[in-house]
Amino acid sequence: MMKAVKRSVSLILILITVSALLCACDRGDKQVLWVITEQTTWDRMNGQLYEVERAFELLHGDVEVKVEYLPTEKQERDVFLQKLRTDIMQGGGPDCYLLPTDSTLILDVPSQYVYTEVEPLFPDVELAMRSGLFYDVSKLYDADETLPKGELNETIMDSGVVDGKRFVLPLRYDIPVIYARNDYLERVGLDLDVLNGDILSIMDAVYKTEAPYLAGGALFEDMSIFSSLIDYDLRRSTLDPELLKRYLVGYQRLKALLGEAYVDYNKEAPDSKTILLEERDRIFLEKLDLKKYIYCNYFSDIELAGGNIDRNAPKTEYYPLWIGSMQDLLEYAPMMQFEENELTVLPLRSFDGDLAATVTYYAAVGAGSGDPELAYEFLTRFLSKESQWESNRPKRPYVRPIKGTAGNTSNDTHYPGLIESGWPVLDEDSLQTLWNRRRKQLYVRDLERGATSEQKSRMRQIGLMGELNDECVTIFDVEIDRVLFGSAVSNVLPEILASLNDTHESNEPTSVDIDKLINDYVENIRFHILEG
Amino acid sequence: MKIKTKNALTGYALVLPLLLGFVIFYAVPFCMVVWYSVTKGSGKMQSFVFLENYFELFDNELFVLAMKNTALFLLVGLSSILVISYAIALFLKSCPRISKLLRSLILMPYVMPIVGTVLIVDILFSEAGLGNVILTSLGLPIRDWLNSDSAFWVMVMLYIWKNTGYSVVLILSGLATISDEQYAAASLDGANGLQKFRFITMPQMWYSVFFAGIFSLINAFKSFREIFLLGGTHPHESIYMLQHFINNCFEKLSYSKMAVTSVLMALGVCVLFLVCYLSVMRKEEYKE
């Protein structure tokens, strides 16, 4: 009896061992490359990742790319981040990181965009580089002959280097750009030279004009105006609280000025397209031949989707002054050729006169990666010409494997042609290439939808706009002095600005204590440095 | 001899599960934390830096602030709770009639859910709370209790209120072991209350007080939950504790700072425990 039991137990143990060995062998056949990214659809990086992932798996038959999207639901994200951070601490963690530096994700659920504020995995990429959380890819990068290094923006690429070690590969960047219609500014007496100054001088000059429609465009909301917030070598804040106060006060009163226009608009309830305009400007507009502005009307159709007017819309007659991003070049640069009016395009300099660029999307090999060479090879796909210029806008809707948005089989609902996460780091000849792509895709989009005769007419107008190249705008000739990575402290600014004025409708300044806001913010930076 | 060995083996076998649990879940992770505290970076980027992280941390003003606050909180909180608990326990021992009822009542805050505790603090010390209502009725200016230096004292009070009951029970159990005959004999010898306390109660209570002190120390570290719920990750500076620092360093992936702080905190607690333990053992020597 005992013998039989012993024999059965031995048999079971042998079976378990053999199965375990077989499983281990089976798992060993495919090498897993673990990629961590954010789920966001607006910036199109998820679509690009999907395409690169498939191509990489086809090229390396023995590699399985395991993409994990960080959850956006707070509690689920907290648990996920905690587990991930523990893995990283123990020397494990993902092979690749593919992440935006902004903490506001824009997701699409059927028929609407959802803005979600999330806690970033790395609250400060600069600190993460210095803490040794990324693998040093210097040797791999230097030896890499497949990358078009000469065409990549060197200053931006070198922002991923700390103490001679290359930890991060920037994929997208942005600089604040001023777009202005000269005739408007001259008419209201705003000296064009002011645009060469910092945001405070621009805000002051705009406020003096008392023109609400100018106020809307001058409300720039980005911490790059301070050039830098932290000196990472000395581990101290470089923020000048006095400058921040002047900026907040200037912002508050400009927003109030903008609010007056909204109040007038609501009283009179005129055609929605006259929003933000004073009577004198309305008269001026009536004299304009709006038929010339078919291009901007075409875009306004897109931007007005859902009934909301997007202030990014390139309607120069509504926004004669606009401080935006480099992506707006794709609308303003053609406008500069198409319109008879002279437009100015200038980079916005920070308070110290430097031009600060911000990395908006980056890639990095995890310090705990089992195969850093393979991870590097995967990530450099995002620096190829195809990814930087073409794959960014998929030729057809892709199936997005994202949990919790529109399901596993939903098609990309976005129209192709947008690069919202920043400008490609491969920026040589980028304007020309991106404009050509965009033109074609806008054309295709309307064909897909079944274009009306009016739309066809607009498409012809787009076709008439002609070719563009980097020489059309001087922005690519300007030297970038400093490159920043967005961090948890710089991403707080919109929250502070939101507390300065009442609702979007009235924009009345609130009674918020600005000095306390600044003190809290300075304190926030101090905690960020000392705990990071 | 054979029986002795067998007994020893049985003893080890019985202790083994606990010992294994301790080694796997406490000793090994702690050794790992010690290793992280002398290294920088993670995975393939990890490098040995020896005590550099320690020197850097002592230059970190936030760590110093957290350490000062924690030490002050322990000093004020622990000493207050022991004195108060001792006094209440002595009172309850002298009034056995109401002792049963009070013992249950006094334990109520300890078993109260944390959310309830936080809610009570909010009712009392929020901007429109009872504390400010009283101040207003007295014609005094209102205070922002939780966002000023008062926050520290609010937290000490909360800690004492919540944990006194438990310490009272522990000390009371120690008092119960002292026989009434000793007090009666002392009375016959003409000893007054203070003398009885000094020469009979105190010498026999060291171990119970030490035990109550250890549990109060554990509960003091647990108070971080309340402070976190009331003040968030970055409360007022006066209640920014070492646990805040550790927690925030983890969220910012600053592992070396977190590891160094954890090691120093563990060392601090161990030294405190050892000093108290040795001192108590010396005082208890007479029993042997």
Please supply descriptive tags for the structure shown above.
heterodimer, A: 532 residues, alpha+beta, D-Maltodextrin-Binding Protein, domain 2, 42% helix, globular, B: 288 residues, mainly alpha, MetI-like fold, 12 helices
Describe what is shown at a glance.
Chain A has 532 residues and is α+β, with helices and mostly antiparallel strands. In chain A, 42% of the residues lie in helices and 15% in strands. By secondary structure, chain B is an all-alpha fold.
Topology readout:
The complex is a heterodimer of chains A (532) and B (288).
Chain A (H helix, E strand, L loop, with lengths): L1 H28 L1 E8 L6 H15 L3 E8 L3 H16 L6 E5 L3 E6 L2 E6 L7 H6 L7 H6 L10 H4 L3 E2 L2 E2 L1 E7 L2 E5 H6 L11 H11 L2 H7 L11 E2 L4 E2 L3 H28 L10 H8 L7 H10 L17 E4 L4 H10 L4 E5 L8 E10 L6 H9 L4 H6 L32 E2 L5 H20 L3 H12 L17 E4 L7 H6 L15 H18 L1
Helix pairs in contact in A: 8-9, 8-10, 9-10, 10-19, 16-17
Chain B lengths: L1 H36 L1 E2 L6 E2 L3 H7 L2 H34 L1 H16 L2 H12 L4 H8 L12 H27 L3 H9 L4 H30 L1 H8 L10 H10 L3 H30 L4
Antiparallel strand pairs in B: 1-2
Helix pairs in contact in B: 1-12, 3-7, 3-9, 3-11, 4-7, 5-10, 7-9, 9-12, 11-12
